[in-house]
Amino acid sequence: MLSLLQIAFLVAAFLTIVSAIMVVTTPSMVHAALWLILALAGAAVFFIILNAGFLAVVQIAVYIDAIAIMIIIVVMLTEGATRQQIRQVSKTWWAAAIAAILLFVGLIAIFLQTPSLIAEAPALVMSQDAILEDLGTALVDVNRYIIPFEIASVLLLAALIGSIMVAWPLVKGDKKEEVEA
């Protein structure tokens, strides 16, 4: 019989997978962004199930509140997204499908090699406060995660500037002309 935690995991996993599939298959960019928010919320549920409350809050605050909302605003600011549907399927979709199948087979092979699928995880040696302190130190330590952390912040800034440039109307002479779709 399944426990309540296992049922919560299965429901969250199902919703996350369905919403992730909808992100890449829906024809509307706005709807894809909304499905992305649901997929990211599913990841936050996984953090809650893993008893990592801080990471769940970070997932919600950073990814759902900041990035996903920024994506929705950018999509709505661009002229093409409101007037016409943009084709989201590439001509080389078959290559992506083959890569996804190979990745799936590889993950299943790794999963089947685990020694015990029923074994419980060992108890944490450190307290929750010590884990959180270690995470905070790791994010600013030169030898650990400061470089990836800073690269991510620069990439987000570049994405924000790029989205402003995409939404900005063309300027010819002294008159502003908006791009005709």
3D architecture notes:
With 181 residues, the chain is mostly helical. It has a single domain (4-86, 125-177), classed as Four Helix Bundle (Hemerythrin (Met), subunit A) (Up-down Bundle). It contains 7 helices and 2 strands. Strands 1-2 form a two-stranded antiparallel ribbon. β1 and β2 form a beta hairpin. α1 (4-25) runs antiparallel to α2 (29-49) and α2 (29-49) packs antiparallel against α3 (53-77). The N and C termini lie far apart (57 Å). The relative contact order is 0.07. The mean pLDDT is 78.
Task: Kindly summarize this structure in a few lines.
The chain is mainly α.
- Measured by DSSP, the beta-strand proportion falls in under 5%
Which structural class should the secondary elements be placed in?
mainly alpha
Distance between the termini: 57 Å
Helix content: over 70%
Order of helices and strands: HHHHHHHEE
For the largest sheet, list the strands in their spatial order: 1-2
CATH class: Mainly Alpha
**Mean pLDDT over the full residue set:** 78
Main beta sheet: strand number and arrangement?
2 strands, antiparallel
Number of helices: 7
The structural domain count equals 1
CATH architecture: Up-down Bundle
* CATH fold-level topology: Four Helix Bundle (Hemerythrin (Met), subunit A)
- Identify low-pLDDT runs: none
CATH superfamily: NADH-ubiquinone/plastoquinone oxidoreductase chain 6, subunit NuoJ
Looking at the structure, what is the overall shape? globular
Number of E-type strands: 2
Radius of gyration: 21 Å
